[in-house]
Design brief:
Blueprint: E1 10-11, E2 17-22, E3 25-33, E4 39-43, E5 51-54, H1 57-71, H2 76-87, H3 94-113, E6 121-122, H4 140-152, E7 155-156, H5 173-185, H6 196-212, E8 220-224, H7 227-241, E9 252-256, H8 262-270, E10 277-280, H9 291-303, E11 307-314, H10 326-336, E12 339-343, H11 354-359, E13 368-371, H12 373-376, E14 384-388, H13 391-398, H14 427-437, H15 440-462, E15 466-467, E16 475-479, H16 487-501, E17 507-511, E18 514-520, H17 528-554
Parallel strand pairs: 9-10, 9-11, 11-12, 12-13
Antiparallel strand pairs: 1-3, 2-3, 3-4, 4-5, 6-7, 8-14, 13-14, 15-16, 16-18, 17-18
């Protein structure tokens, strides 16, 4: 209905005016209230201020377009057909798909075939933002050229064998193919009804991991984007399982060491536990939680009428690769009825090796485990997992219902065990390489990394570096502390020099106010040749920094 009397209209403050071009003609309008409270789009060019009643600003624009088209003699059906023709450009034909796919595959093959010649690190900028997104399409060759220049070249190259900093991610080729398949078919794995096969596959993978860590049949879990989300969910399940009330948060106590991953602190804030008490349990000389001190702290807190809630142990810390004494901590948690969470994001999949299995003994007694397939199984970033011993507790925290999903209640759905409803089909990127490779090369690769770390620690000491001792897993911390040197300043200059060299990439950390370099050996492409190159680069750059310091002193 068109309203002619607009003498009492009031302009909407948040969407006052719009300018739309229809067939090259500019027309104006503004959003207003009518005296009856209806929302309208007022056509400035229309006689007597013709208006269309509407309920959202998007509809205002659509109605305005419809009115404008009618004024120019274009019917609604004609306009829909015009738009369809343009929209169909989003569905390229077989020939176009083949053309673009070939260029993308060629680009990827060139990258993989020349990976050993590509630096592990290149300082660069984010100049990709200089290229605006426009109305017209870009040639695929130009798009790939921009990608190569501004995305693939600058910064850290995680695909490189020389990526030895932080915790290397993977990037298995078969995982990329799994993602390609998942994205083309676009199966929704969150709800069993809509994707029964995809949902079942993810649950199958969760069950495989639960069995790997010795969890019982009642265990459940979910695939996540990584350790941060997994740790957040674990904290939330622990909170809910304890029945913690908001009025008691400031009496709740969480126990962990200073080596616990910083995502735990973030998880506590996000889970509404910002005001909870965090006890930093003392560590031994290898940066592992002291079980006796944990027991003492819990007893003290109970005596003081506090509420011990959970213990967060590490199975491979990011800084040093330390593994807490899991079996001893599990015993203490059972004794005091605390939730026992193990953050095994980095170290968990070493359980596939015999040495790792021995080191992780006790993890099967935990209440929840965070583990990242994008670390220990070498998958692309964005592939984590949370496992919970008593699966019904996970479901109790995250299952919910909605009216629009009333037709989709059949079967067990991954969304019932997850913080996510909308989610990518992560399962295929894990399932495909496991099926096409089998477990044997994964076990071999992980054992190789353990031995490479041991080899590097021995060899770097021969170059005059001091280390944090033989590695438990595959992270080695080391520093150069020559006579008369400011060791912290020297090691900061050394890591900067290694970055400038670019052939390998290492990172640094601070432990007890001392700067250490880290060698995190986990890339599936890293072999002994890479470790020897790292030793060579360290020696070369150490001598250069020493020479530069000597020149400054002499001058």
């Amino acid at each position: 209905m068109l309203h002619k009397d607009v003498r009492h209209t009031i302009q909407f403050s948040f969407y006052q005016k719009t300018l739309i071009k229809v067939k090259g003609h500019a027309v104006h309008g503004c959003a207003q209230h009518t005296p009856t409270g209806n929302q309208e789009f007022i056509l400035a060019e229309a006689p007597l201020g013709k208006a269309f009643p509407c309920r959202s600003k998007d509809i205002w624009v659509l109605l305005f377009l419809a009115f404008s088209m009618e004024q120019e003699g274009v019917s609604l059906i004609e306009r829909i057909r015009q738009l369809e023709k343009l929209a169909r450009q989003l569905e390229p034909g077989a020939g176009k798909r083949d053309e673009v796919r070939r260029r993308v595959i060629d680009y990827c093959e060139h990258f993989l075939n020349h990976l050993d010649r590509i630096p592990a690190f290149v300082r660069g900028s984010s100049a990709i933002t200089d290229f605006p997104i426009g109305e017209e399409p870009l040639n695929v060759d130009l798009a790939l050229r921009l990608l190569r220049q501004h995305i693939d070249q600058p910064g850290l190259n995680p695909a490189s064998a020389g990526h030895l900093g932080y915790i290397p991610g993977g990037g298995l080729y078969y995982s990329a193919l799994g993602d390609y398949l998942a994205d083309v078919f676009n199966r929704y794995a969150g709800v069993h009804f809509t994707g029964p096969g995809a949902a079942a596959l993810e649950q199958h993978l969760v069950r495989w991991m639960a069995d790997l860590f010795g969890y019982p049949g009642e265990a459940a879990g979910t695939l996540t984007s990584g350790g941060s989300v997994s740790n957040l969910m674990a904290v939330m399940v622990a909170r809910d399982a304890a029945g913690l009330k908001s009025r008691d948060v400031d009496r709740a106590v969480i126990y962990m060491t200073h080596q616990a991953h910083h995502s735990i602190d973030k998880a506590l804030r996000l889970a509404g536990l910002r005001e909870a008490i965090i006890r930093r349990v003392p560590m031994d000389e290898r940066w592992r939680m002291k079980a006796d001190d944990l027991d003492r702290l819990i007893i003290m807190d109970k005596t003081n009428r506090l509420l011990p809630l959970m213990v967060v142990a590490s199975a491979g810390t990011t800084d040093t690769g330390a593994v807490d004494p899991l079996a001893d901590l599990a015993r203490i948690c059972r004794k005091h009825e605390l939730w026992f969470h193990v953050d095994a994001a980095y170290g968990g999949f070493y359980i596939l090796t015999q040495e790792g299995k021995n080191l992780l003994a006790g993890i099967e007694q935990s209440d929840s485990i965070t583990v990242d397939p994008h670390k220990g199984l070498f998958l692309p970033y964005g592939t984590g997992a949370l496992l919970v011993r008593r699966g019904e507790l996970l479901k109790r925290s995250f299952s919910s219902q909605a009216a629009y999903l009333q037709d989709a209640t059949a079967g067990e759905s991954p969304a019932d065990y997850s913080i996510e409803l909308t989610r990518p089909f992560r399962g295929l990127r894990l399932w495909l390489p496991l099926m096409l490779h089998g477990l044997k090369p994964f076990r071999a690769c992980l054992e190789e990394k353990l031995l490479l770390a041991r080899y590097f620690e021995q060899q770097v000491r021969q170059l005059g570096f001091e280390t944090g001792g033989p590695p438990q897993l595959s992270v080695v911390v080391y520093r150069y502390a020559g006579k008369g040197l400011d060791a912290n300043s020297f090691n900061q200059r050394l890591v900067h020099a290694v970055h400038e060299d670019g052939r390998v990439f290492v990172s640094s950390t601070r432990i007890n106010q001392q700067i250490y370099l880290r060698a995190a050996i986990l890339s599936f492409r890293t072999h002994i040749k890479t470790i020897d190159l790292l030793l060579q680069v360290l020696e070369e750059q150490k001598q250069k920094v020493l020479a530069a310091l000597a020149a400054v002193t002499q001058s």
